[in-house]
Design goal:
RNA_pol_Rpb5_N, Dna-directed Rna Polymerases I, Ii, And Iii 27 Kd Polypeptide, Chain: A, domain 1, DNA-directed RNA polymerases I, II, and III subunit RPABC1, DNA binding, nucleus, alpha/beta, 35% helix, Arch_Rpo5/euc_Rpb5, 19% strand, 8 helices, Eukaryotic RPB6 RNA polymerase subunit, 4-stranded mixed β-sheet, 227 residues, single chain
Length: 227
């Protein structure tokens, strides 16, 4: 194996592990072994005979756990006493094209639609063109997220300076607002493009609980409304 192949394989191994851990932290069904695959195992499964990594082999899907489905179930309302969870299978694809344009994103969106995947995560080697980014809203109801490979080299949720973030269910959000007699707009905010919000796949209107360490209180919780 050449030094170049070895470096690229190691880099993609780290990205692959972070992506699996991110999906598991959101609540998708992934095992510990899948999330902490060894470099040797990654090489055996995702490299060719020369040791070069094969991105197309890294594609994976995962289903939401029961707990995740509960968190994504809207509150009951007149005419909809038993609402369906607004979540489903996630499909993750790794793209190594040097340029990612409109055609590439449309093909990915078409695959998500044909296979009935609820969410698509596109991990790209290069940044999408500005015209490609503009078409994403038109691809709805498909939920499509784009991550640069370089942004997944390190799992930011494991950094000692990053507090634990936990998504609240619609029911927990309702109880929180009632307890403090607040409107959601009165909560501190977190942008959906915040690194931890992107990691958790937060959607506008959701509330995340943030637990920080305190020298005096031990731990304390705060809440952020996603915008």
């Amino acid at each position: 194996m050449s030094d170049e192949n070895s470096r690229e394989l190691s880099r993609l191994w780290r990205i692959f592990r972070t992506t699996k851990q991110m999906c598991a932290d959101r609540g998708y069904e992934l095992t510990e072994d899948e999330c902490h695959i060894s470099l040797d195992q990654f090489r055996a499964e995702y490299a060719d005979s020369s040791g070069a990594p094969q991105r197309h082999k890294m594609t994976f899907t995962a289903r939401p756990t029961t707990e995740m489905q509960k968190k994504y179930t809207p509150l009951a309302r007149p005419g909809q006493p038993t609402p369906e969870p607004q979540i489903g299978t996630v499909h993750v694809e790794f793209n190594g094209d040097p340029n990612l344009g409109v055609k590439g994103l449309k093909q990915f969106a078409q695959l998500l639609s044909e296979k009935n995947y609820y969410t698509g995560i596109f991990v790209t080697q290069s940044a999408p063109t500005s015209s490609a980014l503009k078409i994403i809203p038109s691809l709805l109801p498909t939920v499509m997220e784009i991550f640069r490979e370089e942004d997944l080299l390190v799992n930011i949720s494991k950094h000692e300076l990053v507090p634990k973030h936990t998504l609240l269910s619609a029911e927990d959000k309702k109880r929180l607002l009632e307890r403090y007699r607040l409107k959601e707009t009165q909560l501190p905010r977190i942008r959906v493009d915040d690194p931890m919000a992107k990691y958790l796949g937060l959607r506008r209107g959701q509330v995340v609980k943030i637990i920080r360490k305190s020298e005096t209180a031990g731990r304390y919780a705060s809440y952020r409304w996603a915008i």
